[in-house]
Amino acid sequence: MSVAAINLILDKVVSKDKDFRYMATSDLLNELSKDSFRVDQDLERKLCNVVAVQLEDQSGDISGLAVKCLGVLVRKVGEPQALGLVQSLCDKVTQPSKKVPSRDIASIGLKTVIEVASGNLAHSAAAMISSKMLQGVQQKETFDVINDSLDILSEVLAKFGHLLLDQHAAIVQTLLPYLDDSRHGIRKRALHCIGALAPFLSDPQLDAVVQHNLSQLQGGKLKPDNARSYVQGVGMLSRAVGYRFGRHFQAAVPLVIKYAQQAAEGDDELREFALQVTMSLPCHIV
Fold it and tell me: Whose CA is closest to 191, among 258, 236, 129?
């Protein structure tokens, strides 16, 4: 398709008529998906700007198509333009002033980028997303921002944790305090992040994370909710790193058993978690 034809589509994409916008966005997706699609840098920037706008369209059908466009576009344009889109999405997730729908669609957009990125873009995008989400995680008073940032961070760590070696120490330092957070959802997502990162940690870094978990359990002054999180953490780490957890086996098992035995009457959840972890530990480290 000619540049003039693509510009015609872009004109329709910003139409006030919802049906025109939908059809134009659908046409844009079809064009982007063609192997023959090639444009110059100026048009690349224009396309990125238009898709960024369409992601926030009030019509869910149109914003959904825009997400699909995004997944194709970041693989077709130059890395600078793709990273510009990524940065824009990161800012929308981590800015407390952004409305929930805007943050939600930006989160979906970032997850799409994580799913499709490869090669040099994967390294650059992963580093940017991880760094930006760490900033979001540190906005301690903004639950939605922390929640979404942790959610995205866990995905980028699971897929690209091996590319983020220079960020591992900062990620661990940022995440560990959230295991003591009073909010269950935050603790749960912080655990998922640590579990996603654990296979890529060096032995000293992994040992420090495990020791932190075990030392908290050894302290014996945890609230029931926090105790459940740390017991789950032991199980999650053992599943994530397998045999590498073996050197902590003798210290971990008696602690977890103690929590199963000392769970308060009625705290069946803690008892069940502890028993599950106790039974599964030998399987994971063999």
Answer: 236
DSSP 8-state assignment for residue 132: H
Residue 179 exposed, middle or buried by CB count within 10 Å (0-12, 13-18, 19+)? buried
The pLDDT of residue 102: 86
Alpha-carbon dihedral sign for residues 133, 134, 136, 141: positive
Contact of 88 with 132, CB cutoff 8 Å = no
Of 53, 101, 90, 98, whose CA–CA distance to 73 is shortest? 53
Ranges assigned E (strand) in the chain:
none
Structure tokens at 139: 């906005």
Q: What is the pLDDT of residues 240-250, one digit of tens each?
A: 999 999 999 89
Q: Which residue has the tokens 């034809």?
A: 5
CB-based contact 81:44 (threshold 8 Å): yes
Structure tokens at 238: 């053992």
What pTM was computed for the model? Answer: 0.91
180: left (phi over 0), alpha (psi -120 to 50) or beta: alpha
Length of the chain counted residue by residue:
286
How many CB atoms are closer than 10 A to CB 173? Answer: 11
